[in-house]
Every structure is written in structure tokens, then in C-alpha cells.
UniProtKB/TrEMBL annotation:
InterPro entries per record: AGP_Transferase (IPR051678), Aminoglycoside_PTrfase (IPR002575), Kinase-like_dom_sf (IPR011009)
Pfam family, one: APH
Coiled coil: none
UniProt organism field: Streptomyces lichenis
Matching Gene3D superfamilies: 3.90.1200.10, Phosphorylase Kinase, domain 1
Name listed for the protein in its UniProt record: Aminoglycoside phosphotransferase family protein
PANTHER family: AMINOGLYCOSIDE PHOSPHOTRANSFERASE-RELATED-RELATED (PTHR21310), BIFUNCTIONAL AAC_APH (PTHR21310:SF42)
């Protein structure tokens, strides 16, 4: 399924042709779809490898920083991260770079895979703490590849968040009852509350950028690995905490406690969660219903927190 206007179709024959051209020793290995995200299409290659092919030119840019920084960051982190093993070059059939990583066993976190959500939240916090305090090794936000909006402040996002809130309201006015459970006035109020706070003033550090459940792998009931570092950047940590609204409350509370996040940081993180949630709902409603459903669930969790009288 195409998600973006300039997306390049990818299928098994194309991937095999890329492998045959650059890694013929792998070209005959079993090749099977292994899922797809908003940025990449993935194929499992044999038992030990994963091919990642970007959907379009914009989504190809992060490959360079993953190759440069993941091998250097991996020894500093508490959990396993992707290991690039081949940097694929553009060809006549596919004009973008692509990559091959080591396969990492694991399943997406959920009620059937996580044994203890509080422990999961604590494990995720340990990974985040290790990443955020890892040596920058000379990297700065001034580096073109490491400057991403989620490591900045909320104010520059207000224009598109306001636009996407309006789009969501307009859709809700004509949607079936099953899609009218979100209170966009309340969501906007919480967004404005985050905007009104002073911006973050602490040190900048490494950020993963997209710690939603699809990028976390569970093995033996515990967090095992963190994948997809396409959003790797240097910046302020507020947006890093936003995906915890994709997790059950026990994980969310344990994560917040383990990192000792203060009310202002938590409010800004909630603002980021709203921003990304409404933009995903507006953009992917038709093209990627499953991802839009994740965004809706995140916004529902934010509403449930507020409605349940959760701490600020």
C-alpha cells in the first residue's frame, strides 16, 4: 500500500535484484515480508538478516545516520539495537539507498507478550536514560542529519497542529459514531497548556525519536530491543516521552517514576503526544488505517488520563 505521494513500489523481485547486484551470496536465501512502517518496507532474509527499503527519497535520508551512529551507540545502551551489515547503493531499478541489518528476535509489546507492564515501563526508562546520557561523541544538533523537529520546542509546531486539529474536527462532524469519541476541544486545551509553559532548559542529548510500540521488541516477557532509529537526533527530551501514552497506565506510571519526570516536562510530553497523534490521524486516516487507529488510541489514552483524575 502506498502511503506517500512519491513512494516507489517495492516487492520481492525488486529486493532480490538489489541483493543479486551487490550481495549475490545472499540472493538465494529465503525472502519474506517482515512488516512495513511509514518510512520503510522490510523483508526477512534467511534466518539472520533483515532488508530495509525506504518508501521514498525523504525516508531514505535517515539511513546514513543509522549506519554512522548505531555501531557507536550500541555498546553504550542497555538493550539491543539494530546492527547494520550492508549499505545498499541506488540502482537503475531502485534509485535510493537501502540497507541490511542483523535480524533481531522478538515480538511487539502487548497483553500476550508482556508479563509485567510496570517492569516494562521501568526497562524502557532505563534504555531512554542510557541513550539520553550517552556520550555525544562530537555530534550536535547543528549536524544536518541530527536536527529533527521532535528534539526542539513545541512553538514551531503550532501551525500544523492547529491545522490538523481542524481537519480532525471536520472529519468528526461527518464520521460514524465509532469515530466521534475524541474531544478535540479538550485536546486543543491541553496542547495550548503545553505551549504556554517555558521551553525545556536542560542539556540536549541523543534521542530515538519514535519509541512507539512498533519499534520495541519483547522477548521472554521483557523489553529486549529497540529498533528503527530513523528519527535519531540530538535535542531536548520532551518529545521522547510522548509514546508512553501508547502503553498501559502501569507502564506509563513506572516510566515516569523511573525517570523522575517533573510536571512541566510531563505536560510538554503530553503536548507532543497530542501533536503527533492528531497529525497521524489526519494524514493516515485513509492511506494507513492501522496507524491512524494507533494515533486514535493514543489520544484516547490522554483523555482517559485526564478523565480519571491522573496526577498532573
Amino acid at each position: 500500500m502506498k502511503l506517500h505521494r512519491n513512494e516507489i513500489p517495492v516487492d520481492v523481485p525488486l529486493v532480490r535484484s538489489l541483493l543479486a547486484a551487490e550481495r549475490p551470496e545472499w540472493a538465494g536465501l529465503p525472502l519474506a515480508p517482515a512488516g512495513s512502517g511509514t518510512d520503510n518496507v522490510m523483508y526477512r532474509l534467511g534466518d539472520e538478516l533483515l532488508v530495509r527499503v525506504p518508501r521514498d527519497a525523504d525516508r531514505a535520508r535517515p539511513l546514513r545516520k543509522e549506519r554512522a551512529w548505531l555501531p557507536r551507540l550500541a555498546p553504550l545502551l542497555t538493550h539491543r539495537v539494530p546492527e547494520p551489515v550492508h549499505a545498499g547503493a541506488p540502482t537503475g531499478a531502485f534509485p535510493l539507498p537501502w540497507s541490511v541489518h542483523r535480524w533481531i528476535d522478538g515480538e511487539r509489546p502487548g497483553p500476550d507478550t508482556v508479563h509485567d507492564w510496570a517492569a516494562f515501563g521501568t526497562d524502557l526508562a532505563a534504555f531512554v536514560r542510557g541513550l539520553h546520557t550517552a556520550d555525544l561523541m562530537g555530534a550536535t544538533r547543528a549536524d544536518e542529519d541530527l536536527d529533527w523537529y521532535r528534539g526542539g520546542t513545541l512553538a514551531p509546531c503550532d501551525e500544523w497542529v492547529t491545522r490538523d486539529l481542524a481537519a480532525c474536527r471536520a472529519h468528526a462532524g461527518t464520521a460514524p459514531a465509532s469515530e466521534t469519541d475524541l474531544d478535540f476541544d479538550a485536546l486543543e486545551e491541553w496542547w495550548r497548556a503545553a505551549l504556554a509553559l517555558p521551553g525545556p532548559s536542560g542539556p540536549q542529548g541523543w534521542l530515538h525519536g519514535d519509541l512507539r510500540p512498533a519499534n520495541l521488541l519483547v522477548l521472554g516477557g521483557r523489553l529486549h530491543a529497540v529498533i528503527d532509529f530513523g528519527g535519531l537526533s540530538v535535542g531536548y527530551p520532551d518529545a521522547e516521552h510522548a509514546p508512553v501514552w501508547d502503553l498501559p497506565p502501569a507502564a506509563r506510571d513506572a516510566y515516569r517514576d523511573a525517570l523522575a519526570l517533573d510536571p512541566s516536562t510531563w505536560t510538554r510530553a503530553r503536548g507532543w503526544a497530542i501533536a503527533v497523534g492528531v497529525s497521524g490521524l489526519a494524514y493516515y486516516r485513509r492511506s494507513h488505517p492501522a496507524f491512524a487507529a494507533e494515533c486514535r488510541a493514543r489520544l484516547q489514552a490522554i483523555q482517559a488520563d485526564a478523565g480519571g483524575g491522573c496526577r498532573p
